[in-house]
Amino acid sequence: MRVRESIEIARPPEAVWSFVSDPANDPHWCDKVKSVHAAGERRWLIVHKPVPLRPAMELTLEQIELQAPERLVLREEDEASVFDVEYRLVPSGAGSRFTQTSEFEWKRLPRPLHGVFALGVRRDVRAQLAALKRHLEGSYG
Fold first, then answer.
1. What is the pTM assigned to this prediction?
2. Which residues pair with 8 in a beta bridge?
3. pLDDT at 88 (0 to 100)
């Protein structure tokens, strides 16, 4: 499945890149992220906050490709899913256009539920991008 969302951020691509390319900043714009721990070269262990009736979840994050300040490719994997994520930054009149494309597959989710869960992924990505915009524009504005 694939989700692609974009947002305009009133900051230059270099400023957006410097923030989003450092996973230690994820808790500032990814509401589900509780903590980030280095786990090797360009690898991190991410702990997601618990959700009702479920414990906190751990996932691995790996930076696959970095082309500063325009493209970052990540792979995220946990016991339930695998996400291949691409961030693209291009200059725009307002500063930067940030696009996140997430291609993902579920490991154990029954096929009839894939579409419903994809809607949840889209909602989460939109919320993350809005939080990123608020954080970066508020921090520098």
1. 0.92
2. 97
3. 98
